Amino acid sequence: MSSWIDVRKNLRSFRFAIEGIGALFRFENNAKIHLLAAVAVVLAGIGFRLNRIEWALILTQVGLVLAAEAFNTAIEKLADVVSPERHPQIKAVKDLSAAGVLLVVIIAILVGILIFGTKLFEMDFFNG
């Protein structure tokens, strides 16, 4: 029987994605650093008792950083297969991919400063 949704195929794809997440955090140093930062941010969020909107913003930023790192890693690995030797265009591709991660991280830091900085001001942290 043909179905418009092939459940087995979807489950297999989901399993491959989980394997990719495992490989990302097992083998990629930058991904480990981002994951450690994400855990720290989540713990800080618990400590500061973020509201639902703040959690939504923080978790979105965490997800974007981790996804950007995954895309960057995939692009770098593909570039290494396409051109194992040094090539200026491959360098440009890798640099642009890394720039994408950096841009997402900068925005995530700014969102974190807005949310956690506001919490610190509310606690009168900066006034002694």
UniProtKB/TrEMBL annotation:
<dbReference type="InterPro" id="IPR033717">
    <property type="entry name" value="UDPK"/>
</dbReference>
<keyword id="KW-0067">ATP-binding</keyword>
<keyword id="KW-0808">Transferase</keyword>
<feature type="binding site">
    <location>
        <position position="28"/>
    </location>
    <ligand>
        <name>a divalent metal cation</name>
    </ligand>
</feature>
<keyword id="KW-0418">Kinase</keyword>
<comment type="similarity">
    <text>Belongs to the bacterial diacylglycerol kinase family.</text>
</comment>
<feature type="transmembrane region" description="Helical">
    <location>
        <begin position="33"/>
        <end position="50"/>
    </location>
</feature>
<dbReference type="GO" id="GO:0005524">
    <property type="term" value="F:ATP binding"/>
</dbReference>
<dbReference type="InterPro" id="IPR036945">
    <property type="entry name" value="DAGK_sf"/>
</dbReference>
<feature type="binding site">
    <location>
        <begin position="94"/>
        <end position="95"/>
    </location>
    <ligand>
        <name>ATP</name>
    </ligand>
</feature>
<feature type="transmembrane region" description="Helical">
    <location>
        <begin position="96"/>
        <end position="117"/>
    </location>
</feature>
<dbReference type="GO" id="GO:0046872">
    <property type="term" value="F:metal ion binding"/>
</dbReference>
<dbReference type="GO" id="GO:0005886">
    <property type="term" value="C:plasma membrane"/>
</dbReference>
<keyword id="KW-1208">Phospholipid metabolism</keyword>
<dbReference type="GO" id="GO:0016301">
    <property type="term" value="F:kinase activity"/>
</dbReference>
<dbReference type="InterPro" id="IPR000829">
    <property type="entry name" value="DAGK"/>
</dbReference>
<feature type="binding site">
    <location>
        <position position="69"/>
    </location>
    <ligand>
        <name>substrate</name>
    </ligand>
</feature>
<keyword id="KW-0444">Lipid biosynthesis</keyword>
<keyword id="KW-0460">Magnesium</keyword>
<keyword id="KW-0594">Phospholipid biosynthesis</keyword>
<keyword id="KW-0479">Metal-binding</keyword>
<keyword id="KW-0812">Transmembrane</keyword>
<feature type="binding site">
    <location>
        <position position="76"/>
    </location>
    <ligand>
        <name>ATP</name>
    </ligand>
</feature>
<keyword id="KW-0472">Membrane</keyword>
<keyword id="KW-0443">Lipid metabolism</keyword>
<protein>
    <submittedName>
        <fullName>Diacylglycerol kinase family protein</fullName>
    </submittedName>
</protein>
<feature type="binding site">
    <location>
        <position position="28"/>
    </location>
    <ligand>
        <name>ATP</name>
    </ligand>
</feature>
<feature type="binding site">
    <location>
        <begin position="85"/>
        <end position="87"/>
    </location>
    <ligand>
        <name>ATP</name>
    </ligand>
</feature>
<feature type="binding site">
    <location>
        <position position="76"/>
    </location>
    <ligand>
        <name>a divalent metal cation</name>
    </ligand>
</feature>
<keyword id="KW-1003">Cell membrane</keyword>
<feature type="active site" description="Proton acceptor">
    <location>
        <position position="69"/>
    </location>
</feature>
<keyword id="KW-1133">Transmembrane helix</keyword>
<dbReference type="GO" id="GO:0008654">
    <property type="term" value="P:phospholipid biosynthetic process"/>
</dbReference>
<keyword id="KW-0547">Nucleotide-binding</keyword>
<dbReference type="Pfam" id="PF01219">
    <property type="entry name" value="DAGK_prokar"/>
</dbReference>
